[in-house]
Specification:
This protein starts with a strand and ends with a helix. The strands form two sheets. A five-stranded parallel sheet has the order 2-1-3-4-5. It is an alpha/beta fold. Helix 5 packs across helix 21 and helix 11 runs parallel beside helix 13.
Length: 503
């Protein structure tokens, strides 16, 4: 609803205008003032769309009020009403940009016609601003997508984009446990902007991941992260985890900042109970180590050995060693029992050329060690020999990447999760993610998105299929989410892209 401020030194005149507006049925919030000085105070605190003012008033006349009001609110619509049919007043008002001049006594039909015309103008201007804001937002999101992938160039960039990019202060990567964003991206975008009043842009990276670009700095990442997670959980009844960058000015580029928040987010594989990851944060606290299940940890180490997953092997070994490198309530005999089992699990995976001692001698030495650090050293020496053997044979692992790429090329229209692709290649999800990025330079989600977008591009240009059908064919059953993802990737809507590229 628009707002109108009525200014006249005569109370009866103000009440009359109020009455006529209410009688007309035009929906307006109304306030009034008895002079120009009081009106200026109201204008400073109360956003006004229409100023309806008399000319002749004490303290500050209408023309002086208009000059001051326009400095406060340049888009203000102004109506002058006066009992003085003096051409000089009208001419001066025109030079000030006033387009509406009503003589007293006010005729109801003329007032209604004038207000209706102004409201139509306000509606048109508001629609125009919304459209421009929308275009700017799409253009900025497209440029940010290019920036985090290292493909943004300032040579042909829009001036609005160049003004906006330096304003971003922090980057936050959100990861949901399901395809939440596929149906909730727009709702989340509006909720964070309006519900939390965040000055931000939100980029979709996949149905599970989004990147929050904030223009306001995050002073305390962990409390801020808890606040955001709590808000998302209460608003959408879903949970997620987040990774917070350092201030963006500390990175050489947005690509480097994005690489760090991605790297931090990978820690969720090692600490599933953690929801907030920040630079320099210790991932595992004492309570999480105490709760570590020894048998489950040995099983994870065995799985990592079978999958030749070096990062998972190192991480899970480190967890077990870290747990028992601290004072423990367990007896020395129990700790030695656990590490002898660990040694027994590791030993068969040593390369045949390794000169390690026989297993029974290593186990005997382990039981004789009086210091836990010495026990851990024995285990780590054996693990180092296994990892060195894996590293020497890394060239053969590319087969798994080709296998995953081939599967994506044949099933890009289906649901493609990291877990499912990892099972095809007989690798752990985290190791596949690391290996894929190292081999291709792209994360799995980036690769899948690029492949789907390229296929959508081909179908738009070379077929007459409906856009909604093309979205489903390339793995985006939600039409709005497909259009949003396409616009972010190509900088324009699928419909406009087809018109521009089709002869």
């Amino acid at each position: 609803m628009y707002r109108i401020l009525i200014v006249d030194d005569e109370k009866t005149e103000r009440e009359c205008i109020r009455f006529l507006i209410n009688e007309s049925g035009i929906p307006l919030e109304i306030m009034d003032a008895s002079d120009g000085s009081s009106a200026l105070h109201i204008l400073g605190d109360w956003p006004v769309d229409i100023l309806f003012t008399d000319v002749q008033m004490p303290l500050m006349d209408g023309l002086e009020l208009i000059r001051n009001a326009q400095r406060l609110r340049p888009d203000l619509k102004i109506i002058i009403f006066s009992g003085y049919a003096d051409f000089e007043y009208a001419r001066t008002a025109i030079t000030l940009g006033v387009e509406n001049y009503i003589l007293k006594p006010v005729i109801p039909d003329e007032l209604e016609r004038t207000l209706s015309q102004l409201i139509r103008q306000l509606d048109e201007e508001q629609d125009s601003r919304r459209q421009l804001d929308k275009q700017h937002s799409f253009l900025l999101q497209y440029s940010l997508q290019l920036s985090i992938s290292g493909n943004f160039s300032t040579d042909k960039a829009d001036s609005y984009v160049l003004e906006q990019l330096p304003l971003f202060q922090n980057m936050v990567l959100l990861h949901f446990n399901d395809t939440f964003l596929e149906n909730n991206y727009f709702t989340l975008y509006d909720d964070l902007r309006n519900g939390l009043n965040l000055d931000m842009e939100l980029l979709t990276l996949s149905p599970e991941q989004a990147l929050l670009m904030l223009r306001s700095p995050i002073e305390s990442p962990v409390p801020w992260g808890r606040m955001l997670l709590s808000h998302i959980e209460s608003s959408f009844q879903t949970s997620c985890c987040l990774s917070v960058s350092q201030p963006l000015r500390l990175y050489p580029s947005l690509k480097d900042a994005f690489a760090e928040v991605e790297s931090q987010m990978e820690q969720r594989f090692w600490s599933p109970k953690e929801q907030i990851f920040v630079s320099g944060q210790v991932t595992y606290d004492d309570s999480s180590l105490d709760a570590l299940d020894d048998n489950l940890q040995l099983l994870r180490i065995k799985q990592a050995l079978n999958a030749r997953d070096v990062p998972a092997l190192q991480a899970n070994l480190n967890l077990l060693c870290q747990k028992y490198s601290r004072p423990s309530s367990q007896s020395q005999i129990y700790v030695k029992f656990i590490f002898s089992n660990l040694l027994t699990t590791l030993y068969p995976y040593l390369p045949s050329s390794d000169t390690a001692k026989p297993l029974d001698i290593l186990v005997s030495e382990l039981y004789l060690k009086p210091d836990i650090s010495e026990i851990i050293r024995i285990v780590q020496d054996v693990a180092s020999g296994i990892i060195a053997g894996y590293t020497d044979s890394q060239g053969g692992i590319r087969r798994e990447i080709l296998q995953v790429q081939e599967y994506i090329s044949k099933n890009y229209g289906s649901d493609l999760s990291v877990e499912m692709l990892a099972s095809i290649a007989f690798l752990t999800p985290d190791y596949l993610s690391r290996l894929f990025k190292k081999s291709t330079g792209k994360s799995l989600s980036q690769y899948i998105r690029q492949y789907r977008m390229d296929k959508a591009q081909e179908l738009l240009i070379h077929t007459n299929k409906k856009i909604i059908d093309i979205g489903s064919m390339v793995g985006y059953p939600n039409y709005s989410y497909f259009c949003q993802s396409f616009r972010e990737y190509f900088g324009t809507s699928p419909e406009k892209y087809r018109k521009e590229k089709t002869p």
